[in-house]
UniProtKB/TrEMBL annotation:
Belongs to the tetraspanin (TM4SF) family. Keywords: Cell membrane, Glycoprotein, Lipoprotein, Membrane, Palmitate, Transmembrane, Transmembrane helix, Ubl conjugation. Its main location: membrane. This is Tetraspanin. It comes from Cyprinus carpio (Common carp). The chain crosses the membrane at residues 18-40, 60-80, 92-115, 214-239. The keyword Lipoprotein applies. One of its GO terms (biological process) is cell migration. GO terms for cellular component: plasma membrane. Signal peptide: none annotated. It is found in: Cell membrane; Membrane. It is a multi-pass membrane protein. The keyword Cell membrane applies. Interacts with integrins ITGA3:ITGB1, ITGA5:ITGB1, ITGA3:ITGB1 and ITGA6:ITGB4 and with CD9 and CD181. Interacts (via the second extracellular domain) with integrin ITGAV:ITGB3. Interacts with ITGA3; this interaction modulates ITGA3 glycosylation pattern. Interacts with F11R. Interacts with RAC1 and CDC42; these interactions mediate physical association of RAC1 and CDC42 with integrin adhesion receptor complexes.
Length: 247
């Protein structure tokens, strides 16, 4: 009877090893995916980030990139711990899983918080950055970001093209233009004095663009975080099974 129980324990341990090993393979791939999402968030239209006064958006992306890198290393450690059946490595693996879980929940939480504040931030800051910083000395990155924003999202000004009438740019650099050339549907030199330009503001379009990225950030962070709970459960079960086999 005792031999049968021993065989059952051994069989259970083997099953747990295979389950945890398969989990680690998927976990390793997921780490690469998390890093890719974080990098994509920062690189895709990265100029737009310079128009935001808050660092929450980029902070959430950097947290995901860091978490993804740790996930890749942790996945390798998890495979080694599973194959070698070393309880010490399993303990380290569990702690790293818990750490990554907390990082990804934090990134998801930051994305959610920023989602709530985004509209108010854009309405408070975007117009000011456009009318005060466009084509001003030392603000080349802001100028480039605004031009790219207006061309990519097919918009002009913060609330509308009329915002440009209040800017320092129109008083110094406009040369008879009503709006910057990046407001033109077909950009050419000095086309900003023509009537066939984009007239709708950029606030709502930029908000929609950022919200799409935040949804991806939050979903990936929270989704993989909950998947890790499964990994932690498998790790605890295998650790306990190996402990019982010693006795």
């Amino acid at each position: 009877m005792a031999d049968a129980e021993g065989k059952n324990d051994t069989c259970g341990t083997v099953c747990l090893k295979y389950l945890l090993f398969i989990f680690n393979l998927f976990f390793w791939l997921a780490g690469g995916a998390v890093m890719a999402v974080g990098i994509w968030t920062l690189v895709d239209k990265s100029d737009y980030i310079s128009l935001l006064s808050s660092n929450t958006y980029s902070a959430a992306a950097f947290i995901l990139i860091g978490a993804g890198a740790v996930v890749v290393l942790t996945g390798i450690l998890g495979c080694c711990a599973t194959i070698r059946e070393q309880r010490g490595l399993l303990r380290v693996f569990f702690v790293l899983l818990l750490l990554i879980f907390l990082l990804e929940v934090t990134a998801g939480f930051l994305a959610y918080v920023y989602y709530q504040e985004l509209n108010a931030e854009l309405r408070a800051d975007l117009k000011e950055r456009m009318v005060q910083n466009y084509q001003q000395p030392g603000q080349e990155h802001i100028t480039r970001a605004i031009d790219n924003l207006q061309q990519d999202l097919k918009c002009c000004g913060s609330n509308s093209s009329a915002d440009w009438r209040e800017g320092a740019w129109i008083q110094i650099f406009a040369d008879g233009r009503l709006v910057p050339d990046s407001c033109c549907k077909t950009p050419t030199v000095a086309c900003g004095d023509r009537p066939h330009n984009w007239i709708g503001g950029c606030i709502s379009k930029l908000e929609e663009f950022i919200l799409q990225h935040l949804i991806v950030l939050g979903s990936v962070g929270l989704g993989i975080a909950f998947i890790q709970i499964v990994g932690m459960i498998f790790t605890c079960c295998l650790y306990q099974s190996l402990k019982e086999e010693i006795y």
